Amino acid sequence: MQKQLDSIKKEVIQRIYVIFEKDFGGNNRKFARAVGCNEKTIRDLFADKHGMTLNLLFKITKAIKVSPSKLLEDLELNEED
Fold first, then answer.
1. pTM of the model
2. What count of other Cβ atoms lies within 10 Å of the Cβ of residue 42?
């Protein structure tokens, strides 16, 4: 199950990154201000150095104007053997 969770996390971060690049021009500082966190948190998130709390997810979705459910759309855990 952990492999699936890691894969889902990477996909969600990739979806965020695409919007970040488009809407914030890849500017970590500007994005961090919009999110309400520090720039290191954004750098670490995109570098896959740590996970994302639910609080951070909601702050990010507010900043990028996308619902959390939209970011998670079509992602699910499958039963493992």
1. 0.89
2. 24
